[in-house]
Design goal:
Length: about 230
Amino acid sequence: MIRFCHLAAALALLLLALNDHALADELAKSIAGPAQVIDGDTLEIDGELIRLLDIDAPELAQTCAAATEQLRRCGEAAAEALAARIGRSSVTCRWESRDDYGRILARCSGNSDEDLSAWSVRAGWSFAFVRYSTRLVSEERAVRRERLGIWGADEVQEPWAFRQTRWARAAEDAPEGCPIKGNINAKGERIYHLPWGSRFYGRTRISTAKGERWFCSESEAQAAGWRPAKR
């Protein structure tokens, strides 16, 4: 009987430890706080870049064929819509992993517990990112019919196609075909600019004499100590 009691107590302690470990893992994969909108599918919380799962929004530099100014600059419009939806509320993100560029891949919600990825598709500000998930495909089909958000434009290019086109064009003019611009700003910050994601890509000039350089990939830029541009 004594041995049985000792065994039961040991098992109880083991289960408690396992539960504590699981709770710690869950907390480690959760981040919350005020969020800065980087673009239509990317946030920053407490210095961490967070990519919203299941969606792909137009890039900041992306434009759409449309009659209205807002929809012509559809990339900025998608970011502005997400910022307006979040407002000043705290955002909670539960993440699954990091991508090759160190960004957290997560599903996020505001104070209302609304899934921001689902909201973005249903409001017409992003595509269902079918390369990685089909979760929001039916929502995208419905909002296309209603012509909400970007679907009110006459023509909208898929963000993944836009990135590929921009990369190919920029690579033609970049040294050794490496189009990512590694710039050092007035504060000494090392910032890299992507051909599709930075508003200032076109006007950024690289001076190798100042230690600035070109990169062939985001992972190369980050490994060298550069961070992505936030706008």
